Amino acid sequence: MTRPKRKKNGASHTQSEDSLCLEHDIITRLQTLEQKIEQTSKTNTQKLLEEIEKLKSAIHDITIENDSLKKELKSLKEERSIIVDEMQQLRYMVDVLHEKQNDMEQYHRRNNVRIFGVKDLEQYEKAEDTVREVSNILKSKLHLTHLDSSCIDIAHRVGVYRKKADRAIIVRLTSHKAQNDIIRARRALKGTGIMITEDSTPKNAALLHK
Questions:
Q1: In angstroms, rounded to a whole number, what is the distance separating the alpha carbons of residues 161 and 103?
Q2: What whole-number distance in Å separates Cα of residue 7 and Cα of residue 82?
Q3: Using an 8 Å Cβ cutoff, are 179 and 112 in contact?
Q4: Nearest Cα to 129, choosing from 119, 140, 139?
Q5: Which parts of the chain are coiled coil (predicted)?
Q6: How are strands ordered across the β-sheet holding 152-158?
Q7: How far apart (Å, rounded) are the C-alpha atoms in residues 42 and 48?
Q8: Nearest 5 degrees, angle CA 171-CA 175-CA 179?
Q9: pLDDT per residue as tens digits for the range 20-77
Q10: Alpha-carbon distance 170 to 141, whole Å?
Q11: Per-residue DSSP letter, 117
Q12: DSSP secondary-structure letter at 174?
């Protein structure tokens, strides 16, 4: 009966050894897995830190570039403000020059009158014929007997000749007094179909028309 007991103990000893081997194997594998996990974690952490450094560097570069762009934009705004001011000054100067030019042109026309409604029968009407026609209007229509052809520096038709359309006559007088006398006496033309106006610049004529 002793021998069977010995066999039982031997089997139990074998099972114990197998368990120890299995446990050792499991521990070894766990340790290996832990090492791999730790190594992988270190590698990933290192990569992550490197990426973070790259991002920090990129953010730094972007910040510098953004600051540079802000300064450039501020400079451009200041330049634009200066240009706008200069343009406004130039516009003002141009307006002033136009006004002076208009005044000068009107001054040169101060001895002129325009006559409308005088029959225009010839396309190439001679200047002396136009002067004679104007002189006749001054005497017979306006009763300005003191004004004759000698008071007229020049008189000519203006515009394009058209049949059944009378071109206006522009008259330059030798004195501003003669021009004033004609303007004051033009009411006598009422009902005759003839009209006399001052020779205004296009700008002044547009204002008068308005």
A1: 30
A2: 111
A3: yes
A4: 119
A5: 30-86
A6: 152-158, 168-173, 112-116, 195-198
A7: 10
A8: 55
A9: 787 888 888 888 888 888 888 888 888 888 888 888 889 999 999 999 999 999 999 9
A10: 17
A11: S
A12: S
Which helix (H) or strand (E) segment holds residue 162: the answer is none
**CA distances in angstroms from 163 to 1, 28, 156, 166, 167, listed in the order given:** 159, 123, 17, 8, 10
pTM for the complete prediction? 0.59
Structure tokens at 208: 């008068």
- How many Å is the maximal CA-CA distance in the chain? 178
Give me the residue label for tokens 């040169």: 108
Query: Hunting for tokens 């001052």 — which residue is that?
Result: 198
Scan for tokens 């990569």, then name that residue.
Answer: 47
Residues 201, 102: contact at Cβ < 8 Å? yes
